[in-house]
Amino acid sequence: MEYLNIVFQEVYKILFLLIPVLVSVAMIVWLDRRVWAFVQKRQGPNVVGPFGLLQSLADALKYIFKEIIIPSSSNKVIFILAPIVTMTLALIAWAVIPFSATQVLADINVGILYLFAVSSLGVYGIIMGGWASNSKYPFLGAIRSAAQMVSYEVSIGVIIINVLLCVGSLNLNDIVIAQQNMWFVIPLFPMFVIFFISALAETNRPPFDLPEAEAELVAGYQTEYSGMMYAMFWLGEYANILLMCAMGAILFLGGWMSPIDIYPFTLVPGAIWLILKILLLFILFALVKAIVPRYRYDQLMRLGWKVFLPLSLIWVVLTASYLFYFNLLPVNQ
Amino acid sequence: MIAHAIFFYTFSIIAVVSAIMVTASKNTVHSVFFLILDFISISCLFIMIGAEFLGMIMLIVYVGAVAVLFLFVVMMLNVAQQKNQWFAGQSTSKHIPVGLIISTLIFFEIIIVIGGWKYKPEIFDINNSLANTSVSNTHSLGQILYTDYIHVFQISGMILLVAMIGAIVLTFRQRFGVKRQSYIKQISRERVEGVEVLEVQSNKGVKIDD
């Protein structure tokens, strides 16, 4: 009975985390389309529900009732697994995100490594979907995205090292608490910019949405998908974008910490601050989508390997020498 | 303890079965996917014994990067169509004795290491080399690698670098007649260089270069 109690408690906690995440993914799709529309002087979805808020639910309903088409020459097992993998990976990463000093599902020692590992596994959903479709466009999209995500992960990893040098711990809560006096966005501003752009590339967002460039590849890796499976890719993609925003908020914008450490602001629960920071980053993501034209593939690779990687490596050396020279290296335990 | 055992056996059974399937599956891409499953379950086992840093690094390096490259190569070479014939083809049967000898060797090596570790622990200097267990896994690894054995670690890094450069030099071919994209040239192009307005006389036409 004791085991069952523990299991039920954990399931309860997980549901309490996952359902808000899924609902917010649906809302964020609406927000994305809305921001995109406002930049282009359109209205965007505004019919279903107040301000069109229920548009995503209506879309989801439509997807559920559509027929799922599985191409006859596809690799069926992997074809069906691919959206499941994307969705699962996008959701399990939320386990380590701290919403306040105590509100975290799994407060593990290597939280940031876990986040990084899960986000680097995200490429598999895309490769599996692209390969299993057994068709040229999805395959090209999958190959492109594999190369793109692997290259931008390298610079994200080096940027994380920059932050870790200032923190001295891999725990996400420690990273947040280390920003008590100053958010890392101030001393590490160039790294924040590079992280933001790499996150765009990592999540296949415009201007780096080459894996699904509609002018060249129809819809890239998800060309052959339809109905609920397509919707799962879509949900997974947006959950990943939210996750990258959360990662940026935790690494650079002080996570659940309130921006000003005085009385009325500290009353607001940490979760609200984290959500506001995630929203801020997401609106930036949406604005970039509306404003910047798509990159060419060789420009994308050049940016990743020849600009971001050397820059972030140099910044690691700079940060390390600065911290060492002024004896600021964090020494704990 | 029971829960621990259940998880341990689940992960190890998945690891062993997927390792067998890597060699047994007919499709090479499936083999790579089984390899990934194997890596993931091994990293779960690492995490279960408390080596969470190693487990995560295993996920990041092997699953996140190395296996992607494997998959990339396998897909690009289009070997997916070639069937992997398990102990059937004429040409493969020649390699079986060699493989068997090597695998028995590795098997005995592992037995010697594990048996020695278990029954003669004083031979292996494990207890002294491990940092104290009060600090976290990551800290003790860092202490060993970057404080106690820094020179050995740096030298191994140098060897890897040399190997990498060697591989690049060996496979590097200079190709001629390749069109290169010059980034600076493209964005610094002005309208004057690109467009020329000409008076076209009727029945004469204009000569455009080339």
Fill in the keyword field for this structure.
heterodimer, A: 333 residues, mainly alpha, 13 helices, 68% helix, 0% strand, B: 210 residues, Four Helix Bundle (Hemerythrin (Met), subunit A)
Short description:
With 333 residues, chain A is mostly helical.
Structure characterization notes:
The complex is a heterodimer of chains A (333) and B (210). Chain A has one domain. Chain A is an all-alpha fold. Chain A contains 13 helices and no strands. Chain A has helices at residues 2-39, 55-65, 76-92, 111-121, 123-132, 136-167, 172-177, 189-202, 214-217, 227-252, 263-267, 270-291, 297-325. Chain A is globular, with a radius of gyration of 21 Å. The two termini of chain A are 39 Å apart. Chain B has 210 residues and is an all-alpha fold. Chain B has helices at residues 2-24, 28-48, 52-76, 90-93, 95-119, 126-129, 137-148, 150-171, 183-187, 191-194. Among the domains of chain B are: 1-85, Four Helix Bundle (Hemerythrin (Met), subunit A), CATH 1.20.120.1200; 135-172. Chain B is elongated, with a radius of gyration of 28 Å. In chain B, helix 1 runs antiparallel to helix 2, helix 2 packs antiparallel against helix 3 and helix 7 (137-148) crosses helix 8 (150-171). Classes of the chains: A mainly alpha (333), B mainly alpha (210). At the A-B interface, helix 4, helix 5, helix 6 and helix 13 of A face helix 2, helix 3 and helix 7 of B.
